[in-house]
Amino acid sequence: MRHSRTFSLSSSLTDEDLLIDKRPVEILESAFLHYPGLIATINISGDIVDLKGNTVTLLGYEQHDMIGTKATNYLSMHAPGLTDEIFLTALQHGQTLNINLNVIHQNGSAVPMYVKCLPVIKNEEVKGMIIIGNMVVDEEVVKELRTQLTELAEEGRIAKSIHERLDVGIWSLDMKNYKFTYLSKSIENITGATAAEFDQDPKLWRSLLHPEDVHIIDDYQELLRKGEAVKVEYRLIYKDKQLRWIEHQAMPYLNQIGELTRVDGFIMDITERKKLEESIHHFENHDYLTGLMNRKQFTKRLGKVIKSFSMFDEQPSLWVFYIDIDQFKSINDLYSHSVGDQVLASFASRLVRFVGDKGFCARVSGDEFLIAVTNIGSDDHIEHFAADLLDEMESPVIVEEEELYLTVSIGASVYDLHAKQPHTLIKYADLALHRVKMSGRNDWMIFNESIEQEEKEIDQIAHDLRFAIEREQFFILYQPKVNAQTRTITGAEALIRWNHPDAGLIRPSTFIPLAEKHGMISLIDSWVFREVCKDLDTWRKSSHPLLPVSINVSPNRLLKSDFVEQTLRQIKEFDLPPSLIEFELTETSIIMNPVKVKSVMSELQNAGIRFSLDDFGTGYSSLSYLQMFDINTLKVDRSLIQDVQKTTKNQIIAKNLFRMAQEMEIDIIAEGVETQEEMEFLVSQNCSIIQGYFFSRPLTLESLMVYSDVLAETRRKSGGQ
Prior knowledge:
Elements: H1 24-34, E1 36-43, E2 48-53, H2 55-59, H3 63-66, H4 84-93, E3 97-104, E4 110-122, E5 125-134, H5 139-154, H6 159-165, E6 169-174, E7 179-183, H7 186-191, H8 195-200, H9 204-208, H10 214-219, H11 221-225, E8 230-237, E9 243-254, E10 260-269, H12 271-285, H13 295-308, E11 318-325, H14 329-334, H15 337-355, E12 359-365, E13 368-374, H16 379-394, E14 397-399, E15 402-404, E16 408-414, H17 422-438, E17 444-446, H18 449-465, E18 474-483, E19 488-500, E20 504-506, H19 508-517, H20 521-541, E21 549-552, H21 555-558, H22 563-573, E22 581-585, H23 587-592, H24 594-606, E23 610-616, H25 622-628, E24 633-636, H26 638-641, H27 648-663, E25 667-671, H28 676-684, E26 689-691, H29 701-717
């Protein structure tokens, strides 16, 4: 059982109108009347100005993190029947509010609570509100109170008046005559029976018990006779025929010869606490947003299904599907997390309807779901099931009058064929999902042993990646940017490569995602930039004309607080003109923190450094970035220009894009150009800067200088200027 700490109302408020008189009797009465787990004081603006209690245990927040914030920040949007307006109206008008609500835990889950909101009024003016959460009375406090009250009674003081104010039923039973010698007034509130009724029939208590719980009282009688205190919980049938949960504590007293002469006890109505525990149990096993079971509960349920297979002569089929919504982060970034939550809830409902009675579903993380299905049939049937699932999830989700289109990636594993343990089946489905995402998303795949072997190899690569820089395994290649009309090199893009001692040359598409995943991408970016500066210095000393070099920069490095300072310091260290450096940004870099990115760009552009937007034409809202940011160059993604002469749609998009960039005086580079046909189309649209295999593969620094000389000599012999 979880117990709360005890605390008194504090007077350490910044708003002197909310000072609370700390009279000891009132504190004692309030603490036990409301069973506070926490006590929050808010001012008329709805700000939390004081907080007491075990907030960390209940909600996961440190108290200092909540003070000064809005109380409504912690009210869950999913609390039934409650809105911010109701809460604020009660505050503004000084209304007392007793209500069940959900409070947002630090981890994002919703904690159901019962609270009392009491207005603080001074000179007939509402100054704020006290919010008291419903929690269990601390066991130690009850024990301490019992000792104090016993001492008061023995000294002939007024313990009775305190007893009668507590929402705790206190009783004393003379075991010699089997007659109650004391019953507090709260006994009637808790049991529904009066003291007179108990006087007439001391066994009435037993008749009020739920029939299934009578044995609980019977079982502890022997313990009392031995002089052992007991504490139990049971159900009691109240006079309105409703069930109430009771916490019962009994303390026996033995005489000198060991006979049980008296039993004193406490009873408390813990019905609300039981409801809270049930709710907590639900939220421990279910996702607060979608209502689906979570990973723990899914795994447990999967284990029960597998265990039940032993009852069948012919083993049923069981499939586990691990589902991920493709690029879901873009929805949160482009719209809001509120919209994202609505999309997830709608997606979950659609998933449940699709699965129906064939299986069960779970949400296991932000945009990841699990489903288990049984008895689908043959492999052909499972193929149809997976294909239908992909199609079903592609239907648009309508949120706030917006049509949002989703795609999903799915990994699958099969019971017995791949594994027999729930955790392993989930793991293998996840590995298959990961492979689908690496292969382009919006597809499904069944796990096979080669996937596991490849994943082990990837894990080994991730391990080795940590030592690649210090062991000098990275190197830089440069892909020329060529003016297709003048056949001269106008610049180059720096591309990192990894020569692994065992695996050989590893492509960036393999190790860059691993570097991002394991927090090493900033270190790699810093290494690349320094190497480029060293190469430019070498280039200059070779007497070759210097050319601008573009460098890819990750969002993690771009948003580092020292990025601007380190960039300018290294340029100064090598005495390089800042105009030789161009940083290539992706859409992901921008949408992570547009305000910060704009500030960084402005500061570096003022120093002479340029910025290009890479992979243009592949994102959700790339055009809007041309308005928001001072982009120097657009790099048109290969996907937009490939087979451009054969695809009318691509031609239209490309032509309009080029025209718009020219009108905005933004340079355009077409990357990934491989054919004469593509090159001629681009030149016809005044996009003359080409990057791709049509002119050159990536080159070493020495080869780049030689290639530059060759182009210059070829142009000279052809009569070019």
